[in-house]
């Protein structure tokens, strides 16, 4: 239970420092950020805490070992020496997936087969079984081979942590929940002033803002792979959820989302209900080109349409131009945080940003344009 473990938290590029801050707030030791991931130490009891509480991490991976893997023999032997039996029981399912970059071992299917064979050999020897049934809980193995160094991990999360459990079935989101949460955190929103999103789509940014305002853990409405692991006691999950709920705030918040599409607004309202924040978020059919709001203070956090194709790009530019005129009428005490992949955004919008931060929406390189008043 108190054995020291290492966790790797993959993130979208640009969010590493935010995820590291989250880990420190959870009192995890030895936090260190790398490109696309954050590492920390912890115990089995931290698996539920991490999965339930992280807003900007993509999943929680338990690191079993790191070793040189310049050839298949090294990959096999390095994998076989790791203590898989500490976590995977005799009936556990252990499929393998992974990636390789700048390494001699570049065939992913071949690496998957070698890792699978090595883990099976280790478990078979430990349990005295020639054939492993794999009829029990899922223990997804992940490997990363970078510059001939292999890292072997177990995925404790299952579905990515951006899947909070509030998105209506079958609806693709143009903006990941983890990135929406990051945008709200980068805006330094604390729940005091109005927060508006005039391009709200299915409501991701206002909903994430509401979760942050209430200090509600994003993982309370979903399940995780490691909930079925025998090595992680059920009481640890209940305790993590109870501790998270004890830290929630109650208050009056002014969080608003608008969109020109009535179907999107209906969907946003439904998602807010599923997230249990419909009491503090308001969604309306509204045109961002004529957007205005009363009051001296507030912030806009938004992700307008990108327009990747030529015709769409022209429409997007026209939209940016009109929204720029609407923004020009706001008091200088307001702040704007706008995410776009458009390389000429500032020229089209009509004002140079005070700051820019490079972020990635999946594989799409974007900038968060910050207008700080």
Compose a concise summary of this entry:
The protein has 373 residues and is an alpha/beta fold. Helix content is 32%, strand content 22%. It is built from ten helices and 14 strands.
Spatial strand order of the main sheet: 2-3-1-4-7-6-5
Residue runs with pLDDT of under 50 for 5 or more positions: none
Please write the string of helix (H) and strand (E) elements.
EHEEHEHEHEEHEHHEHEEHEHEE
- The helix-and-strand class reads alpha/beta
Termini separation comes to: 50 Å
Helix % is 25-40%
Proportion of residues in β-strands: 15-25%
CATH superfamily of the largest domain: Vaccinia Virus protein VP39
Instruction: Write down the overall mean pLDDT.
Output: 96
Multimeric state of these chains?
single chain
Number of domains: 2
* Tally of individual helices: 10
Spatial extent as radius of gyration: 23 Å
CATH class descriptor name of the largest domain: Alpha Beta
User: What is the count of β-strands?
Assistant: 14
CATH third-tier fold name of the largest domain: Rossmann fold
Q: Characterize the overall form.
A: elongated
The name of the CATH architecture of the largest domain is 3-Layer(aba) Sandwich
- Main sheet, how many strands, which sense, barrel? 7 strands, mixed
Structural commentary:
With 373 residues, the chain is α/β, with parallel strands linked by helices. The protein has a 7-stranded mixed sheet with strand order 2-3-1-4-7-6-5. A 7-stranded mixed sheet has the order 10-9-8-11-12-14-13, with helices on one face. It folds into 2 domains: 5-155, VC0802-like, CATH 3.30.2130; 177-218 and 249-371, Vaccinia Virus protein VP39 (Rossmann fold, 3-Layer(aba) Sandwich). 43% of the residues are buried. It contains 10 helices and 14 strands.
